[in-house]
From TrEMBL:
One term under GO cellular component: plasma membrane
Key word Glycosyltransferase present: yes
Listed transmembrane segments: 44-65, 85-107, 393-410, 416-436, 448-467
Pfam family, one: Glyco_tranf_2_3
Name of the protein this chain belongs to: Candidate beta-glycosyltransferase Glycosyltransferase family 2
Annotated source species: Flavobacterium johnsoniae (strain ATCC 17061 / DSM 2064 / JCM 8514 / BCRC 14874 / CCUG 350202 / NBRC 14942 / NCIMB 11054 / UW101)
This protein's UniProt keywords: Cell membrane, Glycosyltransferase, Membrane, Transferase, Transmembrane, Transmembrane helix
PANTHER family xref list: HYALURONAN SYNTHASE, MANNURONAN SYNTHASE
Primary enzyme class: transferase
Major localization class: membrane
Location within or outside the cell: Cell membrane
GO BP annotations, alphabetical order: extracellular matrix assembly; hyaluronan biosynthetic process
Domain of life: Bacteria
Length: 478
């Protein structure tokens, strides 16, 4: 906890000079560009993980070369059967579509530029809502970082809402109130009703033209808020904005190190591409902003949302994004609006988080299907439809791929393992190069370890999430 406090304080109290340094993870953030160069100490265990990953991937590549006659024989057997030809045709079609989408996203990424902060006079009034449940002292650090924001005080309203916590969260919210006085208003739910209901209370209490939601285990940079809300001034069609989420606790365990690289790809590459289309599919709970009238246009539907007859108590961020897109608004991403957030440090916590995300993805893709092929916005809808199609194909092909994978393992285990490792080496190299260019060369190699870990340790998440999409429960709240 102490190390997190040190990191967070140095993160949000940096000066307005060109470079802001944060220790022990030394961030150098140049205000003229969003590039950060990260230097982190390596542990012996971490080095062993990276070395083992390289050895494993190179071994896989070697065995693909050694087993080339077996791969050729397998290919001929498929070509000599109707089922094999159909499988090959489907595989080639999917490969071409995925390859085309990758090139399209790459083009959109280079086209993307974050919107620069507008002047204090043009900034809209802003209500920041921080829902908290069993976060302890972290909620205090979150509120302190928000209070230190470079944002006109008379235009900023902070609301902290304790969602019936069972630990000392309410105590730390009260301590923040003592420290900040009238700058923050605090509220306590009579019982735990879930994050969606805590946010709903904040939406109804807030007076700002823009609502910002921040998770209670997240720390923002001084200029994050002004960068986050500036698109609402520049683009009158903007209904929501996603922040740039990175990992706070990546010095504490191996999984957060891996996830930090994954988050950079998810946000700085994919959401940059989606933002170029005005169609970011999910504004993250860790940091997101919404235009007031867009929220209230869908608030009754959002709070009463159900799935298969059950109240929706997960995926509130994706649901809100979906409903705002449906109204015809643009949803954008601000790469220059940084937030550091905590992620699970063990396998159990991680797979529970991914299951929740997977279930939400299935639910909201079904919802999106109801409007994405209609005339939901005046300008081009092709990009949004392509993004939807890509996600839908991924969901639809989950079980066919799952069945094929187990058949391949049962019939040709060595061919499967070696080809999977070579595929990881090839595909993940883009993530490595992307992270190395944006941040740190040495840290980038965690992309390989994460891909190996996900392929062999979390492959079951997608099929399990689909078949259990109807289930309720946050899973990681305890």
């Amino acid at each position: 906890m102490e190390s997190e406090t040190i990191i967070s304080k140095q993160f949000y109290t940096g000066s307005n000079s060109a470079d802001v340094q944060i220790s022990p993870s030394i961030f150098k953030i140049n205000n003229n560009s969003t590039k950060k160069h990260i230097e982190r100490p390596k542990s012996a265990f971490g080095f062993m993980i990276l070395a083992g990953t390289f050895l494993l991937l190179l071994t896989g590549a070697f065995f693909v070369f050694q087993f080339q006659p077996d791969f050729d024989q397998l290919h001929l057997e498929r070509l000599n059967s109707t089922g094999g030809i159909i499988f090959l045709a489907v595989t080639v079609a999917l490969f071409l579509f995925k390859g085309g989408m990758f090139l399209y996203n790459l083009y959109l990424y280079f086209k993307y530029k974050p919107i620069e902060s507008v002047s204090d006079e043009l900034l809209p009034t802003c209500t920041v809502i921080v829902p908290a449940y069993n976060e302890g002292k972290l909620v205090y650090e979150t509120l302190m970082s928000l209070a230190e924001s470079d944002f006109p005080a008379h235009k900023l309203e902070l609301l902290a809402i304790d969602d019936g916590s069972k630990d000392d969260t309410w105590y730390w919210i009260q301590q923040a109130k003592i420290k900040l006085g009238d700058r923050v208003s605090i509220f306590q739910q009579p019982q735990n009703k879930g994050k969606r209901h805590a946010l709903y209370r904040g939406f109804n209490l807030g007076k700002g033209e823009v609502f910002v939601t921040v998770d209670s285990d997240s720390i923002v940079k001084k200029d994050t808020l002004r960068n986050l809300v500036s698109p609402f001034v520049v683009d009158e069609k903007c209904g929501a904005v996603a922040g740039n989420v990175q990992v706070l606790n990546n010095e504490k365990a191996i999984l957060p190190k891996m996830l930090n690289v994954s988050f950079v790809m998810s946000f700085e590459f994919m959401r940059s591409a989606e933002s170029s289309l005005g169609s970011v599919l999910c504004t993250p709970g860790a940091l997101a902003a919404y235009r007031r009238n867009a929220v209230f246009a869908c608030l009754p539907e959002w709070i009463d949302q159900t799935f298969m007859g059950q109240p929706s108590d997960i995926g509130e961020d994706r649901a809100m994004t979906n409903m705002i897109l449906k109204q015809g608004h643009h949803v954008l991403f601000q790469r220059n609006a940084y937030v550091l957030t905590n992620v699970p440090e063990d396998y159990k916590g991680l797979y529970k988080m991914f299951i929740r995300w997977g279930r939400s993805n299935v639910r909201e893709n079904i919802m999106m299907a109801k409007y994405v092929w209609k005339d939901f916005r005046k300008e081009s809808k092709v990009g949004a439809r392509l993004l939807f199609t890509e996600q839908s194909i991924r969901i639809i092909m989950t079980y066919p791929f799952f069945i094929f994978m187990f058949y391949f393992i049962a019939t040709h285990p060595l061919l499967f393992i070696s080809s999977a490792l070579l595929g990881i080496l090839i595909v993940s190299s883009f993530s490595v190069l992307f992270y190395a260019k944006r941040y740190s060369f040495t840290e980038a190699f965690w992309a390989y370890s994460y891909s190996v870990f996900y392929t062999f340790g979390l492959f079951w998440i997608a099929p399990y999430s689909i078949i259990t999409a109807h289930k309720r429960g946050w899973l990681t709240r305890g």
